[in-house]
Design brief:
The structure is a homodimer.
Chain A (H helix, E strand, L loop, with lengths): L7 H8 L3 H8 L7 H13 L6 H8 L4 E6 L5 H16 L3 E6 L4 H13 L4 E4 L9 H8 L4 E4 L9 E4 L1 H14 L5 E5 L5 H16 L9 E3 L4 H12 L7 E4 L2 H13 L9 E3 L16 E3 L2 H18 L7 E4 L2 E3 L10
Parallel strand pairs in A: 1-2, 1-3, 3-4, 4-5, 5-11, 6-7, 6-8, 8-9
Antiparallel strand pairs in A: 10-12
The structure holds a DNA duplex.
DNA sequence: CTGAAAGCGCTTACAG
DNA sequence: CTGAAAGCGCTTACAG
């Protein structure tokens, strides 16, 4: 195999000095003379030298790489979070190794092992849909690798960044009440996932705060899809006392609700209100457009990186820190029975 | 700094053998006895050993990491391509280092330098919007780092994976003609980007093939946005002889067209046809839904990885290979004047 | 079948 | 201000 990279020693040989000096000059070591630095830098440039970070990582014990574990990249949400992470990471001199789990527990474990093998300086992760065993993450902690969760977080003492689903859902439900809707239903996501559970709780709390008794029949357990929105709506409309508004756990569900209501010839928002959660790409463009809570995805990514960065730099002081990002109400047509 | 990883020598010491033997046993070297392998593997497991890939990369000259350079992650298209890439990469034992350029030339150059420093085994890249200088990519070639472009590719002799924009656009335009639309306009993207230029050419070719003379006034130069779709539509409607259908270079533009036509009280598809390109998330959910060409994004990612993999394994034989992925027509409501 | 030794390309404590 | 030397944790050609 032909050697195709210039090394420190190549430069040193060329300049009749040692690799140590070249290394110091290139990293602006204070004890190296300005003249030497200039000579070395000129030569490095001329020879097209690019430091081998593999070698420096091995020596220094620091890779300047973080691992980001996501359930799937085929989803604007995670793309947007990655955007938030990589941007900041890059500014702070970190590269991002990405691992997608396809929502599979097995691939999640594999990803963590890859990250450990790569000796990443830290990991940012969001749980796959069916992850119930956290042994792989405990392994990460045992190795003292800084770890931060975002969005879908386990019930462990590990720093994390989450959206305030409870208050966001409380707000959305209150908004539907304020708009004059009388019976407000909820189509949930899988309730064993913290994010969806929080939203369900926020919905319930808002009803309670308004002295509305909670009717279990008005809660349909969905699975984050247009279909479950449609199915849930059909179920809710079939009740003896059907609702006149639905707070959906996320926007695909909300879209399904809208589709079913159109099929059932029910006017939105005049006869029926819809409020979603996520602010997906399409929500703005449906007819009528969907009211929803924006998840501040880029912000979540940035906060996750900031938190990880602090832990990497300052050690373990932030062990149980939880950052809660406030969602932003985006009121569009689907919930506006009255004017604002 | 506390040492917190078990190494080969740790295992060797424990078992009274050498690191070389342990290394061979763990990698199933044929000359190692089954018994030794068993002992070593048991110890590795017990001590929770995870090979330091940084060290093995340095020694072997192979990192098993590929770099993926994308203009932005805040875009379902690139998320989906990443999905295609990472999935296959992971199956073949490669990790993915990702670098987002925010559509900025400077960050693109920085990303390439990072990849070179990280000694990635190969690079998959798509050009940022304003990249006109390719020196950083030529540098990659000079270092013999395998390189594959996808979607937005430069005019260089470098393997690439692209969508067949020409034939896709030809098909779409022909479809509008077949549906009985008489004057078909085009709102383009930036024409110096190959993908948008191809689509413009396909549109023209379809008109020619149908003996329709080309009217330059019917081509509006847009910039990939809802706004430019709306603006272009206003312009086209203001013509003495306005069109009755528009082929849009991509779906945001198509959405803008739809919005403007609604404002102008023009019925889609009865009075006016729209055909887009990309099959964005929202296109299915507008009213009426948008006909468009699906870009087969996951497929593109997979093909890009396959091509890169071949080059990594087999050397440079594929230097100028170009893979053309066929887009898939998705006919929805916005172009259906007649039935199908 | 296993060991001893060298080396990948850096960084850095120790000298001078 | 610069050099000589050791070592990060692996892999592998060479011996035996």
């Amino acid at each position: 195999m032909k050697k195709n990279s210039v090394t420190l020693s190549d430069i040193a040989r060329e300049l009749h000095m040692t690799a140590a000096t070249v290394s110091r000059a290139l990293s602006d070591h204070p004890e190296i003379s300005a003249k030497t630095k200039a000579i070395v830098k000129e030569a490095a440039q001329r020879l097209d030298y690019k430091a081998n970070r593999i070698a420096s990582s091995l020596r220094s014990g620091k890779t300047n790489v973080i691992g980001v574990l996501i359930p799937t990249a085929e989803n604007a949400f995670f793309g947007s979070v990655i955007h938030g992470i990589t941007n900041l990471a890059s500014k702070h001199g970190y590269s991002v190794l990405i691992h997608e789990c396809d929502e599979l527990y097995e691939l999640e474990v594999k990803g963590i092992q890859t990250f450990i093998g790569a000796r990443v300086d830290g990991i940012i992760a969001s749980l796959s849909r069916n992850t119930l065993d956290y042994e792989h993450f405990l392994d990460v902690k045992r190795r003292n690798i800084p770890l931060v969760f975002f969005d879908r977080v386990p019930d462990l003492e590990i720093p994390s960044v989450v959206i305030d689903g409870f208050n966001g859902s409380f707000w959305a439900t209150q908004h539907l009440i304020d708009q004059g809707y009388n019976r407000i239903a909820h189509i949930s996501g899988p309730l064993y996932i913290n994010t969806f559970n929080d939203r369900f709780k926020g919905y319930e709390a808002a009803l309670k705060a308004n002295n509305i008794s909670i009717d279990e029949n008005l809660v349909f357990n969905g699975n984050i899809s247009i279909d479950s929105g449609m199915e849930g709506t059909r179920y809710l409309l079939s009740l003896p006392e059907p609702p006149d508004a639905i707070f959906a756990a996320e926007d695909l569900t909300a879209l399904g609700i809208l589709k079913q209501l159109k099929l059932s010839k029910i006017q939105v928002p005049e006869q029926f209100g819809i409020f979603g959660f996520c602010n997906d790409m399409f929500s703005e463009h449906t007819t009528p457009s969907l009211s929803t809570m924006d998840q501040q995805t880029v912000c979540m990514g940035q906060e996750a990186f900031k938190l990880l960065y602090q832990i990497i730099e300052n050690g373990n002081e932030e062990k149980t820190r939880k950052i809660v990002v406030k969602p932003l109400p985006v009121i569009r047509e689907s919930s506006l029975k009255k004017a604002l």
